[in-house]
User: Fold MFS family permease from Clostridium beijerinckii.
Amino acid sequence: MNNKKYYPTALALYFTYFIHGIGVSILGQYKQNFAGAWGADKLSNGTFDVSMVLAVIAALGLGRLITLPFSGPISDRFGRKISGLIGVVLYVAYFIGIAISPNMYVAYAFALLGGAANSFLDTCVTPSCLEIFVNSGDVANMFTKFSISIGQFLLPFIIGFIAASNMSYTTIFFVTGIALAIDGILIAIAQFPPKNGNVNTTKDTPIESEKMKFTATSIAVICIGFTCTSTFQLWLNCNQELGKLYGLANPSQIQTYYALGSMAAVLVTAALVKSFLKPVRILVIYPAISAIMLLIIYFVQTPEICLIGGFIIGYSAAGGVLQLAVSTANSMFPTNKGKITSIVMIASSVANYVILNAASYISKSGGLEGPKYVLIFNVVITAVGILLALFVNKQYAKAEIK
Assistant:
């Protein structure tokens, strides 16, 4: 099979994740705007209470969670293209819908659609990349994160341009929705590789899905999808308030450093995984770096530490850990890639919903000190992820000895 003919398809799929990078971050950057538009109460320092916006962001995880049980089987049965096109349509609806939402409740409904879009893109893009780049699956899957990071890196500059041009903050939502719709047309006419085309089989043997048998190791990898998502989502959606608390003049800079860190991580980690470092080792090392950095940020309360922390956490928490967890899980279930991708992403979505709702409560209960309490909460969740990864590494070491 000449996989080079599918490279344009891969490019179109990576572009959906570039837009997703904007989509997953943009509400966090405009929390004050949306809080004001949706009638939030004002705090003693004159800013709006953003807890309702955090609740809407959490709805992205709920929408993803509701649809992942269906998106994986749909991808495996009807094809990656169908799953991808459903995702594009729902994501376009999310961008346009959020921009025109008159209140939190309407926005919540469109956020559910955005989460559903994410689930269908996950079960299209990840299996497709593994089937296009047969010999570099781990690296190819990490570059989905690189695409997300580019979107997150460019977002602050786009926001700055929109503000300087005196355009409404909703402009970005309309522009990204249109760009994604155009990309959807390209995906509709693109060629996709055969499903399970990267599974070794004899020429005349049909590739059929086998019954999935879960072990303690595979369950631990799935749970890592929860913990690693919690680490970067808590930081991504609460760093602006932390920056203000620590006296950072322009908290949006944190997003730029975060995105730079995640992009650097993908490039460095791709090289490490390609040469000598096993993906399961990354699952321990990077969360450990995140936990240490979060503790440093808690104790060293300066504006500069927010920027340094943004880069380090971007590198260690958002630099491909989730993607490597998905790739590791896919290697355990090679004929059920859509389903196992769904399952890991379900764990990720549970984190998105449960953890961000918890963060909303912690932030509201803690008042002006709320962001610091969220940091400690993040450390605890990340530490659980480290323990899970240590267990997975131990089981892999035992398998190698056998």
In short: The radius of gyration is 20 Å. The mean pLDDT is 87. Residues 370-401 form the longest helix (32 residues). The chain has one domain: 3-401.
